[in-house]
Amino acid sequence: MAKLNQKKRNLAAKNKADVFCIETASAECAEQTLARLQSDARGLTTQEACARLKTCGPNEVAHDNAPPALVQLLQAFNNPFIYVLMALALISFVTDYAYPLRAGQETDLSGVTIIVTMVLLSGLLRFWQEFRTNKAAQALKAMVRTTATVLRRPGLDEESEKQAIPVEALVPGDIVLLSAGDLIPADLRLLASRDLFISQAMLSGESLPVEKYDVTANEQRPTADVNLPDRSNICLMGTSVASGTARGVVVATGAQTYFGSLARSLTGRPQTAFDKGVNSVSGLLIRFMLVMVPVVLLINGFTKGDWTDATFFALAVAVGLTPEMLPMIVSSNLAKGAIVMARRKVIVKRLNAIQNVGAMDVLCTDKTGTLTEDTIALEGYLDADGRESLAVLSLAWLNSASLSGTTNLMDRAVLACGQEKLPAAGRADAFNIDELPFDFARRRASVVVERYGERQQTLICKGAVEEMLSVSTHIRKGDAVYALDEARRDAFVRLTRDYHARGLRVLVVATRVLPEAGLRQPLSEADENGLIIEGVLTFRDPPKESAAHAIAALQEHGVTVKVLSGDNPLVTARICEQVGIDNRVVLTGNQIAAMDDARLADAVQTCAIFATLTPLQKSRILKALQRNGHTVGFLGDGINDAPALHDADVGISVDSAADIAKESSDIILLEKDLRVLEEGVITGRETFGNIIKYLNMTASSNFGNVFSVLVASAFLPFLPMLAIHLLVQNLMYDISQLSLPCDRMDKAFLRQPRKWDAPNIRRFMLWIGPTSSLFDIATFAVMWFVFAANTPAMQSLFQSGWFVEGLLSQTLVVHMLRTRKIPFIQSRAALPVLVTTFIVMAVGVAIPFSPLGHWIGLVPLPLAYFPWLAGILFAYCVVAQLMKRFYIRRFGQWF
User: Fold this and answer.
1) pTM for the full predicted model
2) Alpha helices, H only, 614-669
3) For the chain, which terminal residue's Cβ has fewer other Cβ atoms within 10 angstroms, N or C?
């Protein structure tokens, strides 16, 4: 046995490129494929599957994995700000060290040391943060597992067993069982199928599902000129089962799949609005630097006459304008937000989706399980006159028990009730001949059964009221069957409406006795006709106690909740009324189908409830809301929700959802509860707010510094600060902002959705930046007139005074600009921010008195300077607060 298994493994390794080839499999019969894969229709043994997994590797495509740590380290230094600093370091090395060394003059490596320190600090911090972020992202994804159902045998001579295994553990030769809602976990060659329709939108872009089936020996198999997605007997990884069931053998996994080959050429992802926004700010700051640095160079060169010092100073200004911590601050905020959301039972699959969560102003959700308890119970099994009937329950039980695909909650409720109410003999006296699974166009499910001892086959169909009435021609009243004329139809509709108005979901049960010859071909939609209505089933799914509070809380935070349901409009309206959603206007799928895009755009603004929708109608509603300027989230967990989840700005699903729903979503809730989502929305806004806070602070502070430098350069006979002073000051300011991801946001900021607004950042920079420059100029005046630091001999004292004031005012910016309220009084920063900024300010005051200060050319400041410093900083805080109020009144916003 061991030799046989070793022989199989050797053959698999030797012919890997040929053995696991989907093109070959589609052109041969099933027996040939199984033989070539050395597999069996009963499934692989557990031992053989483990051996193949070691040979072939996990069933993963290239883009699923984070790069190795070394690659991440190199990528951490791959950003334009680092390139700018490295170029400046090279120039500084040549001008401060190499050229003076060659000329026999005194060399100075302090500038190079500071710039290199900034490069290393920025890159290493970014690497560490993104390494942790990738680890956290992988850990979060591991909390949401996608499984595949396979047949495996404990041993060669033992019977196969159904097993649910992680998709990563699939190997070529595995036998996979498929049902509605499953993702195709690898490239499969079909062995058997029943009414199988596959959605291939991910690969082909075609929205309609296509039928797949095994090609029999009498049919012509696909030829090489037929595209892979178009071949009827194969299912490709990444597609999904829209309806039906199937059994197939795994032909290729991971990178050998059709999808895997595409993934290798599509590594990376397209830029989101968030990425583009951050890059636009980065570009703005770089362009600003390219304009201002030459201006600083020319002013100092012409006014001071020393072009060497002017060049050093201009280089230092360029370094000061470089927000090298921007990538690290952004990734740190996103990672922290994802971890906080995970603690609140919200798993973020794509970190940049956090921004869209914060920007979301419309949430579209399904009804079942979100607004209701998701504990559907069969309340009534009634004949056409509304009387309890075990005969109706028996028919419903046969229908639900005979469906081989994924059973829904109502099927489970029918089976549970039948188990309790029906005698065992009544549940086991028939066998299944064929079935036609439920789909969201027909909205019904049919089976054909034959009772033991009889040669009579019966079609049993159950489904939504309108759809069942459309295929029914008779109705049973007691023991008699009558034609379904207009009067009887109206009476039956009134009966079902009464149940709907009480918040009950209703299914109609109908039958048709087939001719004596029975079903001559596979059951199809054409067989669902001429049915006799036997009765109705009523189901109760009460609203959640928490739903009303959660909806009110979302509305308080600027998120409008709209319900998109496939259920009856009366039931949906009743549930929505109980949880506080306006139910005065309800639009149905038929009404929406009759609307053009312009009418629909108006309707979605005022209507909060949409019922009896098809999957494509849900997507159409979402797109109408998006065209109206809304950021739309969609919460769903079913197969029919996949298109809407894909089209929404934020696709939100739950851990118990269908595979295709989880795959299509950006956010996974570990509990299907709007309260959990509400907390996720708040965290998303906090995360986005802290990123915008940093961008605003950096842009305005840099602009203010350059404005001050230009004024000082134009009027002073010496440099207002040496290049090394600017470098040290910039390094300390960057350190003071490292704790910003830990900061809290004001409640007022969290009440409204927040969208990316790059123009406001530019406007913020131009209006707020010069405010700090006023007090830099005040410091110049104090040092010049009060302390007589107005000659080249006293320039060190002047530079020391501005160094301290500039660093302290720049650090105070963190507190002044982080809130629209009065800092320290009405709004206090988080403790890490307070501690970091206090330490940086204390060190900044101490530097002129330290050996480091002496080394870089600073001198101790007289004690009389500090009352002036305190007055200037206090005045700065007052004026900055007044400027905030003016800015808010003029532009109606702060961040």
Assistant:
1) 0.71
2) 615-627, 642-647, 659-664
3) N
